[in-house]
């Protein structure tokens, strides 16, 4: 699956530096996922692999059958997961 296949607000299984499930944000483009560090959980963004080094750390594995519901901003909440 390539970045061109990704749709805004859709959920993807990804291989990222710090995330494995993420919502795609087309206006970035980047992926937002839940990261755990030192026991804390928070939202973190990773840029697509196609962005190239050193920032392209997130490779799409597959699309999952979920879309971020309207009304939930895709920069502040992934509570539907």
Summarize the structure.
By secondary structure, this protein is mainly beta. The protein contains no helices and 5 strands.
Instruction: Assign an overall shape.
Output: globular
Poorly predicted runs: 76-81
Strand order of the largest sheet: 1-2-3-4-5
Task: Count every helix, treating DSSP H or I runs of 4 or more residues as helices.
Answer: 0
Strand content: over 45%
- Mean pLDDT comes to 87
Which value, in Å, is the CA radius of gyration? 12 Å
Distance between the termini: 22 Å
Helix content: under 10%
What are the secondary-structure elements, in order, as H or E? EEEEE
Protein described:
There is one protein chain. A hairpin with a 4-residue loop joins strand 2 (21-25) and strand 3 (30-37). The protein is 0% helix and 49% strand. It has one domain. The model is unreliable at 76-81 (pLDDT under 50). It is globular. The chain is built from no helices and five strands. With 81 residues, it is mostly beta strands. The chain has a five-stranded mixed beta barrel.
Helix-strand layout with pairing:
Blueprint: E1 10-15, E2 21-25, E3 30-37, E4 40-48, E5 56-67
Parallel strand pairs: 4-5
Antiparallel strand pairs: 1-2, 1-5, 2-3, 3-4
């Amino acid at each position: 699956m390539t970045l061109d296949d990704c749709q805004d607000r859709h959920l993807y299984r990804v291989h990222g530096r710090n995330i494995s499930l993420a919502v795609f944000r087309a206006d970035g483009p980047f992926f937002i996922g839940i990261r755990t560090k030192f026991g804390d959980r928070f939202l973190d963004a990773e840029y697509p692999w196609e962005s190239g080094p050193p920032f392209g750390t997130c490779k799409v594995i597959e699309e999952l059958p979920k879309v971020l519901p309207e009304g939930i901003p895709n920069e502040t909440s992934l509570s539907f997961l």
